[in-house]
Amino acid sequence: MLKRFIFLLCFCVHTMVFAGEPVVDFVQNLTDNIIENVLEKKLSKEERLKEFKKEFTAALDLRSIGQFVLGRYWKTSDKKTQDDFLTAFVDFAAQSWADKFDLYTGQDIQFTGVRTAAGNQYYVNSQIMNNPPVEVVWRVREKSGSYKIVDIVVEGVSMAMSYRSEYASFLQQKGGDVSALTAELIQKTADLQKEQGKESK
Amino acid sequence: MDKKRFISLLGVALMMGGLMGCACPPKDPVALQAYQENNDPFEPTNRAIFGFNQVVDDYVLTPLVKGYRAVVPEGIRTGILNFVDNLKAPLYAGNSLLQGDGHNALEQTKKFTFNTLFGFFGFFRPSDTAGIVAETADFGQTLGKYGVGEGPYLVLPVIGPSNVRDTAGMVVDAVAMPSDFALKEVDPTLPYVRSGVDGFARRASADALLQSLKDSSTDYYATLRSMYRQNRNKKIGKDGADAYEYDFDFEDED
Predict the structure, then answer these.
(1) Distance (Å) from the alpha carbon of A33 to chain B's nearest alpha carbon
(2) Residue A8, CA distances (Å) to A13, A154, B208 in order
(3) H or E stretch including B156?
(4) What is the structure's pLDDT at A169?
(5) CB contact under 8 A, A67 and B251
(6) Which residues does chain B have with pLDDT short of 50?
(7) Sequence-ordered strand ranges (E) for chain A
(8) Which DSSP string corresponds to A47-100?
(9) Parallel/antiparallel/unpaired status of strands A109-117 and B160-163
(10) ∠ Cα A64 A70 A74 (to 5°)
(11) For B58-74, what is each residue's pLDDT tens digit?
């Protein structure tokens, strides 16, 4: 009840309070760019994916995400294994998100608040205006003056946490072999690509 | 859906009775932490049921959903989903009251009245245009808000991801569903039809998402387990409200 009230309050004053909050501007710029240059532009599937990957790799702190997602297996891997995993992970994540582009039907995104956290981190709250609205929280970290996204949380489901939990389970079954996970991700990416090619025919 | 309910209860009873395998906690501290994070002591059993559900999904539900989506136009499918969804509004209102959320109870009541009267018994959702925004509220959530812990993760036959608390909540919701009392007056089989249509319509509307989630998972079971738990924690908003605010010191190596 109280939360709702606070939300309403935030909602009413959000233009006043959040305009000019640089971290909110950063996220808003990103979503605006993605909507404008990826989702709403007339592009072929390949071009759309390419554009999206460009925006996405620039805005996300992929190394930190990769580190978190692999958890304890990150530390036990050498640099090459880590890098190979990162490349495969990024390709795969972009491809699997591209799978969901069609779900966007012009919804508006409202920014509803921002909280700071330890370690130069921010939680930027936003809502995709469906009914009921879908809550999206952007976890952003400031590093040497620039912002990078380290996690995206949709309706309480953290992207980083979900991947971490899934990969931990996969790796446990493979005796902790990170290169097996990398191979699996490359395979999945190829499968998704094939599947999407089929659909677009 | 009498059978469905019976089977799920049986499944829970079997697991509670410890008749089936349970994964033993590992000794290694890091592995132990992962084990506790998963909250899944019945993993072997859960995976077996999950495997069964996947077979049912692949060979029964998916073909049915494909046929349904091919034959029934989107507008009608949305209407059917709206209709069964509307019938759950009184239950959500009741649970909202139990949770002390008068605002949502009122919104659900408004939504129900509005859509039933002006939306052709809930087939359409004029409440959207009227700016009525209502959240779902089930009894598992109510229990959670009262501080009942989630208990171990469970995969229920046919129904899918749950936990001990939410399974209990689901049984209470099924018994207490206000619309079912009204439907029963018309015909005693109608509540089962309603619950069947509800499950099917929701499965059909989530088809593309589920497929894409499955295609992009290296371990679909683990993905769903993690997502289910995070999402439920958020809905309860208590211990897990901000569970995504995990501590992580992003070590900079470069």
Answers:
(1) 24
(2) 9, 20, 33
(3) strand B153-156
(4) 93
(5) yes
(6) 1, 17-20, 239-241, 254
(7) 109-117, 121-128, 134-143, 146-154, 157-158
(8) HHHHHHHHHHHHHB-HHHHHHHHHTHHHHTS-HHHHHHHHHHHHHHHHHHHHTT
(9) unpaired
(10) 80
(11) 999 999 999 999 999 99
Using CB atoms, which residue from A96, A117, A166 is nearest to B226? A166
Count chain A–chain B contacts defined by CB atoms under 8 A: 111
Q: Is the dihedral of CA B166, B167, B173, B176 positive or negative?
A: negative
Task: Answer whether A156 sits within 8 Å of B235, measured CB to CB.
Answer: yes
Measured between alpha carbons, how far is A151 from A93 in angstroms, rounded to an integer?
Answer: 13
Rounded-to-integer distance, Cα A154 and Cα B247, Å:
18
| Under-50 pLDDT residues of chain A | 10, 12-16, 201
Q: What is the pLDDT of residue A59?
A: 92
Please provide the distance, in angstroms rounded to a whole number, between the alpha carbons at the two ends of chain A: 49
pLDDT at site B12: 57
Residue A111: Cβ-neighbour burial (10 angstroms; 0-12, 13-18, 19+)? buried
> In the numeric block, which tokens belong to residue A149?
């996204």
Q: What are phi and psi of A122, to 5 degrees?
A: -135, 150
What's residue B254's pLDDT? 46
CB contact under 8 A, B216 and A1: no
Rounded to whole angstroms, the Cα distance separating B213 from B215 reads 6
Assess B206–A contact: CB distance below 8 Å, yes or no: no
Angle, CA of B43, B49 and B55, to the nearest 5°: 135
User: Which single residue is written with the structure tokens 């859509």?
Assistant: B115
Secondary structure string (H, E, C) spanning B32-74: HHHHHHHCCCCHHHHHHHHHHHHHHHHHHHHHHHHHHHHHCCH
B186–A contact, CB cutoff 8 A: no
Q: Do B133 and A131 touch (CB under 8 A)?
A: yes
Residue B240 has what pLDDT?
42
Residue B220's closest CA among A10, A162, A132?
A162
pLDDT of residue A184: 95
Q: What is the pLDDT of residue B18?
A: 47
Q: What local confidence, expressed as pLDDT, does residue A97 receive?
A: 85
Average pLDDT of chain A to the nearest whole number: 85
Measured between CA atoms, how close is A98 to chain B, in angstroms?
10
